[in-house]
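agent> Task received from the user: take the single chain below, predict its 3D structure, and emit C-alpha cells. No templates, no multimer pairing.
agent> Plan: (1) validate residues, (2) run structure prediction, (3) serialize to C-alpha cells, (4) report one or two observations.
agent> Step 1 OK, no nonstandard residues flagged.
tool_call: predict_structure(input=
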Amino acid sequence: MAIELRNAVTEDQARCIELLSELKSATGSRPALPVAGPFQQLVTKERGEIVLAVEDAVVLGMAAVSYNLAMRYGGEYCQLEELVVTPAARGKNIGGLLVQRIVDNARARGCAEMGLYLLETTEHNRPFYAKYGFKVIGTEMRQDLSQG
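)
tool_result: status=success, residues=148
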C-alpha cells in the first residue's frame, strides 16, 4: 500500500504524543511537557504544522515544524522540531518523504530558510539531512529555562 502524507488533525493528538515519546526515548531528551496547547497551534498552522506519514490508516511517522519570525529574513523561517519514524517502518523512505514535504510546504509558505539542529545522540543523521540540502552552518547553544 502507498504511503499517504497528510497534515495532522485534532484526532491525531494521542498518536503524535506516542511518537514524540518514542523520539524522546531514542534521543535521551528531557521528558515531555504538556503538549495539548502547542499541538493545537501546530494543527491550526498558527505557529507551524505537523505532517504525518500514514499507511493502511496507521500513522508511521511525523514531522513537526515551527514557523518563526526574524528581522534578518524580513519574515518567516522554518525550523524542523521533531522528525520520527516508527522502528518497524524504517527503510520505507518515510523520513525522506516527510522531510521533502515540509521543505516544500515551507517554500510554498514563503519561508526564507529552513533549519534544524542535531543532538549528540542524533549526529549520525547528518548525512541523511545533507541529501535534502541541509548544510552545517555553526553551533547552536541553548539554556534550559524550565529550571528555576
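agent> Step 4: summary for the user.
The two ends are 50 Å apart (CA to CA).
agent> Done.
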